[in-house]
Amino acid sequence: MASLISSCIKSSASDDYCVDLRSTSSHLIGCFNSSNSIHTFSLPSLQLSQVIPTNTTGVLSEIAIFNENSVFWADRQGKIGLIDFRTGNIVHEFSISEEIFSIDCSDTNLATASDKQIKVFDIRNFQEKRNYTELYADDNDITCVRMSPRQGNVMLSCSEDSLMALCNVDSIEEDDYTLLNVDEPALKVGFCENDIFCVTINRLVSYNPYFDDPDRPPEVLFRHRLFELQTQNPELGYFISEHIGSERVLLGGSHEGDLYAYNSQNTRNYYVGKGHQGTIRCSVMIQGIIITGGEDSAILAWSLQDQPVQEEHKKVIVPSKIKREKEDRYFKPY
Fold it and tell me: Which end of the chain is less crowded, N or C, counting CB atoms within 10 A of the terminal residue's CB?
């Protein structure tokens, strides 16, 4: 075991949640869903650039990078906005009649996931181009949607009904999608270079989707189970994501704010660090540096140390977390 040492990008606060992190080549962007604001940090300095209010009366769900200078945001009331970093202004806004849990985009496609369906919009005119209503069982929330950063027409999504779907949003065929059973309610999906992964309540499963051979079904590369890793790390409570830097990294966390980083190919090799004061919600990797955001509102950058740190980590005292009246069911099991 070796240690992760955290550096503070944004300090803790008792009255806000960092629910999403994204990055461009010049900015790290954080989404906060109590203040309903978007924070940008310059790269590589990671210094705060601006705090942009969205002026929504709902609760922010996620953000999606459109280009170097702009980002989409969505809230739980179905409102979607596009912010230009250069002016800090909302340049476009529209709504759908559904509760949005997740949002993502490619160059020309914007996808939203709700409690009913997935909608895909053409960003050039903001007209709806696809509507997926039958991918998942009724009364199951579609918890996450992601567009491929390499193939802008490929969309990945998952739902509480234990299914993950891989779709070609530009296909003229009505049923041009692949469904995968992930055995338990799915919380998050993502692209890891040419591979895909799904985070469920107790697992993280990685697949080779064989994009170059559409007739070949996706193949499982790694299947990680919480109870297996809890034999060496009993405090581990959930998986966060998977990233590729110098190696393939599997991230997990404890409800006390510990971060665990495992080698996906050999989970006996891992790093652990302390820094957050509660559950870690989201992560990105920028040039091999892990960056996380949490329920404590903090954003931390993590560096690897070859040897375990002997000095006890000094925690920042944070006031008791406020009671949230807003329903947070799509963040299960955190």
Answer: N
pLDDT tens string 232-288: 999 999 999 999 887 899 999 999 999 999 988 888 888 899 999 999 999 999 988
**228-265 in b/e burial notation, b at 16+ Cβ within 10 A?**
ebeeebeebbbbbbbbeeeebbbbbbbbebbbbbbebe
Look at the block and give the residue holding tokens 């230009």: 84
Report how far apart, in Å, the C-alpha atoms of 7 and of each of 185, 242, 255, 276 are: 33, 21, 19, 11
Contact assessment for residue 47 and residue 57, using Cβ atoms and an 8 Å cutoff: no
What whole-number distance in Å separates Cα of residue 225 and Cα of residue 96?
37
Is there a contact between 300 and 8 (Cβ–Cβ < 8 Å)? yes
What span, in angstroms and rounded, lies between the C-alpha atoms of 327 and 47?
Answer: 32
CATH code (residue 230): 2.130.10.10
The Cα 248–Cα 227 span in angstroms is 21
Q: How many domains does the chain have?
A: 1
**Residue 65 and residue 285: Cα distance in Å, rounded?**
15
Q: Are strands 299-305 and 2-10 parallel, antiparallel or unpaired?
A: antiparallel
What span, in angstroms and rounded, lies between the C-alpha atoms of 189 and 110? 16
For residue 287, give Cα distances in angstroms to 1, 26, 34, 162, 243: 22, 12, 30, 33, 11
* Beta-sheet pairing, 127-132 with 118-122: antiparallel
List the one residue out of 164, 156, 240 whose CA is nearest residue 194: 156
Q: Note down the domain range covering 284.
A: 2-331
Give the C-alpha separation, 129 to 170, whole Å.
Answer: 9
Q: What is the pTM of this model?
A: 0.87
